[in-house]
Amino acid sequence: MLEMLLNPKMAERKPWTMFFVGLFYGLISVLLVNVFFSNNPVFSKYSSLLVIMFTVMLSLPFVYFTIRLEKEKGYREEGFFFKSHGRALMSLIWLFIGFVVAFSLMYILFPGVVGNSFDAQIEQYCLINAPTQTQECVSKYVGMAQNGITGSAMSGFSASKDYAMDILVNNIYVLIFCLLFSLLFGAGAIFILAWNASVIATAIWIFSKSSIENFPIAFSRYMIHGIPEIAAYFTAALAGGIISIALIRHDFNDKRFWDTIRDSLNLIVLAVLLIIFSAGFEAFITPRIF
Question: How many domains does the chain have?
Fold first, then answer.
């Protein structure tokens, strides 16, 4: 039913409307998991992954048809990306931002409802921000999440070249997965992006100290470098989808085939440049602003 309500062509005309779609999908995913699985002794252990599963299931029809539409555009049109695909990219970014806001607000406003829905995300946060104190970090924030409270964020890396390199390597790793998942599975990249949205939401909850008054500055802290980073992931996902349609058609003697491959490679280069920029900004600029 939901796939009939969302039309990629309609979303391209008003990309910002996808924010509300992402917000709704994120909220309903958390609620569904906690209503149906919170009392199950087995499924409750994996609530953090079930939330991602429901988010992906809800988003998959829209993302699939969006990438399919962009594949066809990419094969038909020359000089296509910024003119033909910019709005599609914006609609996907707004969808992602909706996820982040939904997960963050559920964590901050309804800790009793959320329960252990983000335990895996807390562990991922600790691996990135407190690699030498991971177990202590996980125990601290999982306990606080279950009790609906939090304190100050644990100190992790200071701004340094090593920290920037660790962020860059991690983000390149995610970028490669987005490209491969899109190339092989079409809309498969939405799983990685929904996971990243939930990890960012966890970081926002921790930085905000579980206070709605601190939410705007916490949200800004992570989105200021997060938007170019996510734009890079979606750009790679679109590039992978466009390459796949060109390979499926295998018109190797057709000039459009090589034009499509060339433009897709340009998108991948653009995505890498965005990743480098966002990693540098996160490591050196963000800590000085916030």
Answer: 1
